[in-house]
Amino acid sequence: KPDMQKIYERCDFGPGASLGVHGMATHRAAKLESERWTVTPTALPFAMSAMGGEPLIWELLQQRSIFSMDWSLFKDLFHKKTEMVSANKIIMVPKTATVHRTIAIEPLLNGLVQKGVDVYLRGRLRRFGLDLEDQLSNSELARLGSLGGFNPFSTIDLSSASDSLSIGVVKDLLPPDWFSLLNNLRSPAYESKWGHGRYNKFVSMGDGFCFPLETLIFASIAYAVGEVTGDTEFRVYGDDIIVHQRAALLVIEVLNYLGFRTNLDKTFIFGPFRESCGADFYEGVPVRPYNLDFL
């Protein structure tokens, strides 16, 4: 079950924009001092509990250095400071020279608690050898896979992975307490200049816990397939999946069953080339070209 105390201890603001806080000044002070703190109704109790454990927030809300620790006063001031919203905001950002991707700007306090879940999940995944702060192990397995041999490693990449993660899949795969928590913290709907509506996907790019949740689900699939094929060594980093060649086609089949599409341009099961986490190898030799991604 979710350890809420540990999650609250890890809550923090990310560096990017939030609903009500945008432009160049998106640092923590700007977010705390914003006129209103945006939050969805279902995330409000979690945000209040997280911020209620920080004395500086009590001081900020009461606007005085000697402040009361009366919880009813805190709740009253907290409600006055918050602004209820029902959706996040979708914008477009460049993915390549010809393609844009959608990204969501989350309500301020949703993002705060989502960050706590993100850090907590990363710590749990690290206990099972999935360190989301380290891409080198993915690169090394990609290099080994490019050397060939019997049952080498294959690299699998997905198209629009977070956009394909449906609510039903998350509900089926996660324990009920975890699904309830994440479902309450996510934004259930979106607004944009192109229209508005409710999400059928569970999280959008920009949700604080999107990346470790993706990693957890894809790692679970790789592990389950490995139990069938006997290939228990794998590595997952977001939607970058590395499994043994013997398990790769079954992994792709299970992913397809759950609604995920394999990116054929970046998936390499056979041959001497492998790619993962921005590292390219041909017969063990790094062949990644220099990318000029700035002007």
Order of helices and strands: HHEHHHEEEHHEHHEEHEEHEEEE
Unreliably modeled segments: none
What separation lies between the terminal Cα atoms?
A: 47 Å
User: How would you describe the shape?
Assistant: elongated
Query: How many helices does DSSP assign?
Result: 11
Strand order of the largest sheet: 4-3-6-7
Quaternary state, please? Answer: single chain
Question: SSE layout and pairings?
Answer:
Elements: H1 4-9, H2 28-32, E1 37-39, H3 44-52, H4 55-62, H5 71-81, E2 82-84, E3 88-94, E4 100-105, H6 108-126, H7 136-146, E5 153-159, H8 167-173, H9 176-185, E6 189-192, E7 195-198, H10 210-229, E8 235-237, E9 240-244, H11 245-257, E10 261-262, E11 273-276, E12 279-282, E13 285-286
Parallel strand pairs: 1-2, 3-6
Antiparallel strand pairs: 3-4, 5-9, 5-10, 6-7, 8-9, 11-12, 12-13
Helix pairs in contact: 3-6, 6-10, 10-11
What does this structure look like?
With 295 residues, this protein is an alpha+beta fold. A hairpin with a 2-residue loop joins β6 and β7 (195-198). It is elongated, with a radius of gyration of 21 Å. Helix content is 40%, strand content 18%. α3 (44-52) packs across α6 and α6 runs parallel beside α10.
Q: What's a quick, concise take on this entry?
A:
The protein is of the alpha+beta class and 295 residues long.
Q: Which features would summarize this protein structure in a list?
A:
295 residues; alpha+beta; 4-stranded mixed β-sheet; 4-stranded antiparallel β-sheet; 11 helices; 13 strands; 18% strand; elongated
